[in-house]
Amino acid sequence: MNKFFSFLIRFVATPFIYIYFFILYAYTVKVLLNFSDWPKGMISWMVIGFSTFGYLTYIFSLAYEDENRIVRIFRKYFPIVVIPQIGMLAYAIGLRISQYDLTMNRYFVVVFGLWLLGISIYLIASQRKSLVSITASLAIVSLLISVGPWSVYSLPLYRQYDRLTENLEKV
């Protein structure tokens, strides 16, 4: 492997995930301790950023698992530590959907959260842990939400239209 890429994975990306993990979990504890003052939209993007960068690092770190203890620990526990954050993501997005219904951005967050949950459970439960499953499942999910009445362009529009009609009928 390229020495620069090896350096990036072993000494930049993986330690960054560890640091961000502690920041994200400290923020999670802060939010849970002050539950009545739930933040507006921050949790979704923090979890999505953490998970995306984390799973990219997870994919690229396979080659260094045997030679680096930090990478080995990261690869063993990352799918597990994502699960509580998915719970925070689910609560946060559920709160916004219950208040304002589904929009395109919230639809993406819901789908991405479900995909994250599926991938994390697969990597926790599976003995084989095929990395192709991460990218292939994301490609399949992306294609599925791109077309049809459940697409990211149609479903939120229909739901917002129905909500508007319902609210106008109340007046």
Structural write-up:
- By secondary structure, the chain is an all-alpha fold.
- It has six helices and no strands.
- The protein is globular, with a radius of gyration of 19 Å.
- The mean pLDDT is 91.
Furnish the topology, listing elements before pairings.
Elements: H1 3-33, H2 42-60, H3 69-100, H4 104-125, H5 132-144, H6 155-170
Helix pairs in contact: 1-2, 1-3, 2-3, 3-4
Strand content: under 5%
Mean pLDDT across all amino acids: 91
Please provide the ordered H/E string of secondary-structure elements. HHHHHH
**What's the shape?**
globular
The portion of residues assigned to helices is over 70%
> How big is the Rg?
19 Å
Query: How is the quaternary structure best described?
Result: single chain
Count of alpha and pi helical runs = 6
Terminal residue distance = 66 Å
Number of strands: 0
Low-confidence stretches: none
* Content-based structural category: mainly alpha
- Largest pleated sheet: none
